């Protein structure tokens, strides 16, 4: 029989730090309401700086695009990506139309 000695441990609260409670739900997969190839609309104010010909950035709120990839599943496994939906947008131009892609979360887009 092995004897254990009790060692006093300071709690986070006594060390001057607030306690942290994390509640998780779900398994990292999307809800299934969005399908690849579906038209979607951005419902949040999101500014991106990688859009062609817009070095000052562009706000995506209200823009419509096409869902081209859902990265919550990979080789049969469920992944918990922060922004699992890859959406392609087309910017009108006097020259040829320009395209760019953005990774978005499920709460930032809605199906059309």
TrEMBL record:
Domain of life per record: Eukaryota
Protein name per its UniProtKB record: Ferredoxin thioredoxin reductase alpha chain domain-containing protein
Family the entry assigns: Belongs to the ferredoxin thioredoxin reductase alpha subunit family.
Any GO MF annotation of the entry: oxidoreductase activity
Subunit structure as annotated in this protein's UniProt entry: Heterodimer of subunit A (variable subunit) and subunit B (catalytic subunit). Heterodimeric FTR forms a complex with ferredoxin and thioredoxin.
Xref: PANTHER family: FERREDOXIN-THIOREDOXIN REDUCTASE SUBUNIT A1, CHLOROPLASTIC, FERREDOXIN-THIOREDOXIN REDUCTASE, VARIABLE CHAIN
Alphabetical UniProt keywords: Oxidoreductase
Pfam families assigned to the protein according to its UniProt record, in alphabetical order: FeThRed_A
GO process terms (BP): photosynthesis
Listed InterPro entries: Elect_transpt_acc-like_dom_sf (IPR008990), Fd_thioredoxin_Rdtase_alpha (IPR004207), FTRV (IPR044166)
Keyword NADP appears in the UniProt entry: no
Function: Variable subunit of the ferredoxin-thioredoxin reductase (FTR), which catalyzes the two-electron reduction of thioredoxins by the electrons provided by reduced ferredoxin.
Domain Ferredoxin thioredoxin reductase alpha chain: 36-108
Provenance organism: Volvox reticuliferus
């Amino acid at each position: 029989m092995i004897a254990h000695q009790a060692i006093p441990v300071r709690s986070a609260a006594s060390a001057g730090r607030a306690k942290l409670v994390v509640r998780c739900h779900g398994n990292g997969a999307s809800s299934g309401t969005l399908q690849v190839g579906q038209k979607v609309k951005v419902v949040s104010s999101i500014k991106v700086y990688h859009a062609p010909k817009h070095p000052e950035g562009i706000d995506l709120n209200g823009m419509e695009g096409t869902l081209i990839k859902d990265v919550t599943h990979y080789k049969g496994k469920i992944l918990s990506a922060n922004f699992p939906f890859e959406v392609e947008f087309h910017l009108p131009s006097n020259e040829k139309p320009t395209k760019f892609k953005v990774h978005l979360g499920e709460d930032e887009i809605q199906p059309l």
